[in-house]
Design a protein that fits this description.
The protein is mainly beta. The protein has 1 helix and 11 strands. The protein has a single domain, classed as Immunoglobulin-like, CATH 2.60.40. The chain is 9% helix and 50% strand. The longest helix is centred in the N-terminal third of the chain and has 14 residues, at 12-25. It is elongated and about 50 Å long. The protein starts with 11 loop residues before the first helix and ends with a strand. Keywords: Signal. Residues 1-25 form the signal peptide.
Amino acid sequence: MNFLGTRRNHWIMPLAGAIAMLGFAAQPAAATAPAPVVNYACGPEIEAGPVVYRACSEVTWTGPDDQYSAQGILFVSNRGINEADFTLTLERWDYTVGDWTTDTTDSDTLPSGDERPYFAPPRELPCGQDARERGEATVPTYSGDWSEVVLPAPC
C-alpha cells in the first residue's frame, strides 16, 4: 500500500516532516567554546603629517589574586622622506579619579621609514576592569588626535 501516493493520506508527509523537525529541535544544543581571551588590542591609526601612530594595550600577566597587568604601547612610524621630530604622550584611564592620567611623555627623532614602539609602565588592574589606554604624537607643524584603545579584562 502506497501511503504517499494516495489522495486520502496526503497529510502524512507534512506530519512526518513536523515530527522530524520536533525531534531535531529536542536535541540538546551543541556546546559552544568560551570567547577567546584578548591579550592585545590596538586603537585607530592616526596621521600627524609624516608621523603615523597607533596606541595599543597588552596584558603582561594574569595573577592568581583576581588581578592582571596591562601595558600601554604607542607605535610611531615616519612615512616621510626626511627625519621627523615629535613629542609623544601615553595616558591611561584612572578609574579612581574618573579621568586620564599621563603615564609617559617623551620626545624623539625618527629617521625616514623607521618605526618604533614606546612603552608606558605596566599597571595592575582588578579582574573585570578593562584597560583603557590612549596615545598621541605631535610634530612641530601637525597635531594629531588621540588613538584610544580599550582592552577587555582577561579575567
